[in-house]
């Protein structure tokens, strides 16, 4: 009998459905079909592909509530948050790229200065990468793979998705949506299983691997991909700092910290994981943070739509949070609220927790927690704030909070991160025009925005010589014509800079 994954609802611990794990042979068959489907899809051109995306958007607009409930059930996040952070941004991505991609992917002329007077022209054409493999995590099991799938398909690729083994049904749901929009058979497929089938995908000589997940797995994927020189994009999480300057709007910053620290139970790569507050406003800020944290309504979000915070994904993730709290407490941190699991809830819940008296010897300030912990530390000077914020292995996002935008902006420009926001955090993931990705152990490459779309294409330089010169001066034999040509080039470089630079 085929190996199976049993998907469970992490809020109730009830099983939802079982799904067969994909075998290596089945994967290779999927790859073969994807290659065939991709060739026909590429030939359609953007105009031929566009109606599929328009149908998909319309279908999703009609079914967004069902999709959100489905996500909520398998992932444990609040239903409204599933709409806000997963379904709506995904529809927006479809609409954005189906409008914008044509221009982005059209041929781009390259000015080639003097060479154009020799009858030459150059331009870039964007060729689809081919068959793209997407290996995705469980924290945004819909939005993360979905936006990548759309970018890949819009650019003319076929896609194979491997959703996390903790949220396989959401992968299946994505397939249902694309099928409902009539995407061609074999163009988009889903394979199911854990890291073993993920590793097989990396070996399958796909054109590109887009991975979101842990640093450890990212490194394994990059090493395995090197065997075939398969290019990779890695989004590996973060330990994102929030700097609250002394002139920040206290109430807004406290609300912002609580939301960006605890949404999705803190299981967001761009969650606020470290807060640095000017020591002169520390008490007033902390008091507000604790107050807003105390108002968070936690529970099974399908039972009550107005729940703010759902469960975490599994026991392993919960244990990381418990260990970080234990480590911090043993080194002198103080828990102001939370610090344990709610007794009245059955699933993988952990109370939103605020910690103070923390420092960089504690895991909670150095390792990705990926849970509902908000550790707050103080700084004396802005120099110190920048130094602390940049003192991390990660560099995904960061934020600066102040009423003085110019001051905040100049500080923002000194932080090491892929995205730095002023007076907000996380939410730019929902703006498809803006790029997403990081550096250091947060990975490399970008998704979203113009530069994200370009990850899914191969830029091909086409160079045309109109054959005005039958014997090029740079061809053999090197003789008088070569000498004359070089003299002219040097003379022009000196005298006619406008043509040569
Ligand atoms: O990630 P994994 P996990 C961080 C977060 C979390 C930790 C572990 O700190 O606590 O990672 O989470 C597939 N070849 N993030 O264990 O293992 C796997 O099946 C190919 C940050 O869930 O990296 C799943 O589909 N694929 C993050 C995906 O990789 C492999 C999101 C992610 O799993 C594989 C999630 C292999 N050898 C966790 N091994 C973010 N960046 O947002 C596993 N996989």
Task: Present the secondary structure layout.
Blueprint: E1 4-8, E2 15-20, H1 24-75, H2 79-104, E3 108-110, E4 120-128, E5 131-135, H3 143-154, E6 158-162, H4 168-180, E7 188-190, H5 195-203, E8 208-212, H6 215-226, E9 232-235, E10 240-244, H7 250-262, E11 272-278, H8 282-294, H9 315-330, E12 334-337, E13 353-356, H10 363-366, E14 373-379, H11 382-390, E15 394-395, E16 397-401, H12 405-412, E17 419-422, E18 439-440, E19 443-444, H13 449-453, E20 457-465, H14 480-495, H15 497-500
Helix pairs in contact: 1-2, 1-4, 2-3, 7-8
Bound molecules: ligand TXE.
Ligand TXE is lined by residues 135-139, 162, 164-165, 194-195, 198-199, 202, 212-214, 217, 220-221, 235-237, 269, 317, 320, 368, 370.
Textual characterization of the structure:
- By secondary structure, this protein is an alpha/beta fold.
- The chain has three domains: 22-236 and 448-458, Aldehyde Dehydrogenase, Chain A, domain 1 (3-Layer(aba) Sandwich), CATH 3.40.605.10; 240-433, Aldehyde Dehydrogenase, Chain A, domain 2; 471-500, no CATH class.
- Helices cover 42% and strands 19% of the residues.
- Strands 12-13-14-11-10-16-17 form a seven-stranded mixed β-sheet, with helices on both faces. Strands 7-6-5-8-9-19 form a six-stranded mixed β-sheet, sandwiched between helices.
- β6, α4 (168-180) and β7 form a beta-alpha-beta unit.
- α1 crosses α2 (79-104), α2 (79-104) packs parallel to α3 and α7 packs across α8 (282-294).
- The radius of gyration is 26 Å and the shape is globular.
- The N and C termini lie far apart (68 Å).
- The mean pLDDT is 97.
- Ligand TXE binds at residues 135-139, 162, 164-165, 194-195, 198-199, 202, 212-214, 217, 220-221, 235-237, 269, 317, 320, 368, 370.
């Amino acid at each position: 009998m085929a190996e199976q994954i049993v998907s469970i609802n992490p809020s109730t611990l009830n099983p939802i459905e079982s799904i067969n794990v994909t075998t290596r042979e089945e994967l290779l068959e999927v790859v073969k079909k994807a290659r065939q489907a991709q060739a026909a899809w590429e030939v359609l051109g953007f105009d031929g592909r566009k109606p599929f995306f328009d149908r998909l958007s319309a279908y999703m607009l009609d079914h967004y509530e069902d999709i959100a409930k489905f996500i909520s059930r398998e992932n444990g996040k609040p239903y409204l948050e599933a709409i806000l952070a997963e379904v709506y941004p995904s529809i927006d991505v479809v609409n954005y790229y189906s409008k914008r991609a044509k221009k982005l992917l059209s041929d781009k002329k390259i000015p080639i200065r003097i060479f154009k007077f020799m009858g030459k022209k150059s331009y870039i054409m964007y060729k689809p990468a081919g068959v793209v493999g997407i290996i995705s995590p469980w924290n945004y099991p819909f939005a993360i793979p979905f936006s990548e799938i759309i970018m890949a398909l819009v650019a003319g690729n076929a896609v194979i998705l491997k959703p996390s083994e903790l949220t396989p049904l959401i992968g299946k749901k994505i397939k249902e949506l694309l099928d409902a929009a009539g995407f061609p058979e074999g163009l988009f497929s889903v394979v199911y299983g854990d890291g073993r089938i993920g590793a097989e995908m990396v070996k399958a000589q796909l054109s590109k691997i887009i991975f979101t997940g842990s640093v450890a797995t990212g490194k394994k994927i990059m090493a395995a991909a090197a065997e075939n020189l398969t290019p990779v994009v890695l989004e590996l999480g973060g330990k994102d700092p929030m700097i609250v300057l002394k002139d920040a709007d206290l109430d807004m910053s406290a609300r912002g910290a609580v939301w960006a620290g605890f949404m999705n139970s803190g299981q967001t790569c761009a969650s606020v994981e470290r807060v640095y507050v000017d020591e002169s406003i520390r008490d007033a800020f902390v008091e507000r943070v604790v107050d807003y944290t105390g108002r968070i309504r936690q529970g099974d979000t399908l039972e009550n739509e107005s729940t703010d915070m759902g469960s975490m994904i599994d026991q392993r993730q919960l244990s990381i949070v418990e260990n970080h709290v234990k480590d911090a407490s043993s080194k002198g941190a103080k828990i102001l609220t939370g610090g344990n699991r709610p007794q009245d809830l059955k699933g993988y819940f952990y109370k939103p927790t605020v910690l103070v008296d923390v420092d960089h010897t504690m895991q909670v300030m150095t390792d990705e927690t990926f849970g509902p912990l908000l550790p707050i530390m103080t700084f004396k000077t802005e120099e110190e704030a920048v130094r602390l914020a940049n003192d991390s292995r990660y560099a995904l996002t960061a934020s600066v909070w102040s009423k003085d935008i110019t001051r905040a902006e100049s500080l923002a420009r000194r932080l090491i991160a892929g995205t730095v926001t002023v007076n907000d955090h996380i939410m730019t993931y929902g703006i498809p025009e803006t790029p997403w990705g990081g550096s250091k152990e947060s990975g490399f490459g970008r998704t979203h925005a113009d530069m994200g779309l370009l990850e899914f294409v191969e830029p091909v330089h086409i160079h045309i010589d109109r054959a005005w010169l039958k014997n090029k001066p740079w061809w053999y034999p090197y003789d008088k014509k070569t000498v004359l040509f070089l003299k002219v080039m040097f003379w022009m470089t000196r005298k006619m800079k406008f043509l040569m630079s």
